[in-house]
Amino acid sequence: MAIFSDWLQAARPKTLGAAIAPVFVGFFIGSQLGGQSINIGLLLCTLGSTIALQIATNWFNDALDFQQGKDTEARVGPRRITAAGVVSPASVMMAGFLMLGMATALSIPLIAARGLPIVCIGIPSLYFCYGYTGGVAPLAYRGLGELFVILFFGLVAVMGSAFVQSGEWLTGGVVGGVQIGCLSTVLIAINNLRDIDEDRSTGKRTLAVRFGATFARIEITLLIAVAYAVGLYWWDAGYTRAFTLPIAVLPLGVFLIFRIWMTPPGPAYNKLLAMSGAQLLAFAALFCAAIDG
Fold first, then answer.
1. 224-264 pLDDT, tens per residue?
2. Is 61 buried (19+), middle (13-18) or exposed (0-12) by CB count in 10 A?
3. What is the rounded distance in angstroms from the CA atom of residue 227 to the CA atom of residue 223?
4. CA distances from 155 to 19, 144, 163 (A)
5. Residue 288 near residue 242, CB atoms below 8 Å
6. What is the pTM of this model?
7. Straight-line distance from the first to the last Cα atom of the chain, in angstroms, rounded to the nearest whole number
8. What is the pLDDT of residue 5?
9. 250-262 and 269-292 helices cross at what angle (nearest 10)?
């Protein structure tokens, strides 16, 4: 019988930064550029809803990868509770749908505050939590996982959070969305490079499988470079600290680039995944401190 730690492991807490970072960045952008104090109630509802969506995505992925034979004994990543036989696929799927229900409930105050745009953001977000690895055209199995993360955990999450805070669609939300989206996508790109051999053997057509390990390494390098480079927007916009302060995290990004080029894909990439999550959270924290300062 599964215990709490099993469910926590399946929620993949090291990936939850991809849900937390864009919300805070978006709210701080919305507050600073919109000229109003942060609405704590809306912030907490947005944060809770986004975390619930991330956990639902991870649980669906756990069950669906097992059902479709994508998780094998060759897996080098953390244990999956469905593949390990700890919880049935049906139970994990049901838990995922309950998380979608929680995300929907938490979005009600956001809809009350900002109206139809939140519905337009929320409906596709709900679907793609499942559609990432399920449905008629699973994104993760067709090399579209990176695009999904950039769009939904970058642009949509940051722009949407800035809109919830300010009631405006802000250019800064687009720039922040690109930055956070790129750093979030580093996580999935490293994950896919780590799993390239297993994914190739099971027919999971990630970008790493489609175009090879060298392409995946170039992809990761460019994602990190773009995340910091587009920050020049903040310098030009007069928020110089929003450009300079997050650069303190760049050495970690450079180290990640060095390691993925020097290390063959395998279990060692689990530490690089944790480091890429730390890069995302540190970047977001420094950015929020800078733009609020």
1. 999 999 999 999 999 999 999 999 999 999 999 999 999 99
2. buried
3. 6
4. 12, 16, 12
5. no
6. 0.93
7. 49
8. 81
9. 160
